[in-house]
Amino acid sequence: MADVNRGNRPLSPHLQVYRLPLAAITSIMTRITGHALVAGIVLIVWWLVAAVTSPGAFAWADWVLRSWLGFLVLTGSMWALWYHLLAGIRHLFYDAGYGMTIEASHKSSQALIAGSVGLAVLTLIVFFAF
């Protein structure tokens, strides 16, 4: 057998060398946000169940929901909902055969990120303004 030094070479593709395209990152984030939406749903369902259980349970659940941690979880869930919705719309275009080039997928990935952040900020403005 040949004397080959295999211990000094990185495996390919290696994440320290290979950079994921933006379309791949947004695709992974779509899956992550889909799973992260469960946290907000569990929190809201807990709040609703506590509302029909007893005044003490509701007071405790309402306090958690109105705390800074509850606000962060609900705000993150709201952003995840916008992101997941826009990614689903983009996927419908992909299914129809539109936006499949590298340039178009990169632009749609940028629009997905900007749109989700913009809609989340707009939702917070509308929520706190009224």
Q: Can you give a write-up of this model?
A:
The chain has a single domain, classed as Fumarate reductase/succinate dehydrogenase, transmembrane subunit (3 helical TM bundles of succinate and fumarate reductases, Up-down Bundle), CATH 1.20.1300. Helix 1 packs antiparallel against helix 2 (55-66), helix 1 packs across helix 3 (68-95) and helix 3 (68-95) runs antiparallel to helix 4. The chain contains 4 helices and no strands. It has helices spanning 22-53, 55-66, 68-95, 102-129. The chain has 130 residues and is an all-alpha fold. The termini are far apart. The model has no long low-confidence stretch (mean pLDDT 91). Helices cover 77% and strands 0% of the residues. Heme binds at residue 84. It is found in: Membrane. InterPro entries: SQR/QFR_C/D (IPR034804), Succ_DH_cyt_bsu_CS (IPR018495), Succ_DH_cytb556 (IPR014314), SuccDH_FuR_B_TM-su (IPR000701). One of its GO terms (cellular component) is membrane. Its cofactor is heme.
